[in-house]
Amino acid sequence: MLAQINDLTFPSNRSNITLVETFIEEVFEDLKIKDEFYGNILVAVTEAVTNAIIHGNNSNDSKMVIVSVDTPKKNSLVFTIEDEGFGFTPEDVPDPTSPENIEKPHGRGIFLMKHLSDNVRFKNNGSSVSVEFNI
Questions:
Q1: For residue range 48-62, what is the model confidence (pLDDT) as tens digits?
Q2: CA-to-CA distance for 132 and 113, rounded, in angstroms?
Q3: CA–CA separation, 106 and 37 (whole Å)
Q4: Of 64, 110, 25, 6, the residue nearest 101 (C-alpha)
Q5: Gap between the Cα atoms of 89 and 35, Å rounded
Q6: Residue 34 lies in domain
């Protein structure tokens, strides 16, 4: 089933977000996941990929982003997004819902990932994030 889906690797360019959308669609088809999960998964994973491109790899086309998917247990789907950056400390990211940040145009990616998924884990000093969904 899942063995048909390979990891997705691409240069850090925002135009490659469309590759991620296609990748997610392939996962849904292959695993026969209900459409009701699509929106949350699409937004959370594309936010993680956007962060990897912009913040992790500084939009450097020579650096790659890797997206992989796994089903570690029944009814669980985990997307892992890795970049070639130095990482960051997730706890240092300002809360986008606090009054001083509410009108800033950026800074909501991690917040969205955490609220749209069932679990978010940062690894490798923040240069890898796993986003888990109970399906």
A1: 999 999 999 999 999
A2: 10
A3: 25
A4: 110
A5: 34
A6: 2-134
Number of domains in the chain: 1
pTM over 0.85: yes
pLDDT digits (tens, 9 = 90+) for 19-39: 999 999 999 999 999 999 999
Which of 111, 54, 115, 62 minimizes the C-alpha distance to 81?
54
Q: What is the CATH number of the domain that holds 70?
A: 3.30.565.10
Q: Among candidates 135, 86, 95, which has minimal Cα distance to 114?
A: 95
Strand, coil or helix: what is 83? Answer: coil
**Burial class (CB within 10 angstroms; exposed 0-12, middle 13-18, buried 19+) of 111:** middle
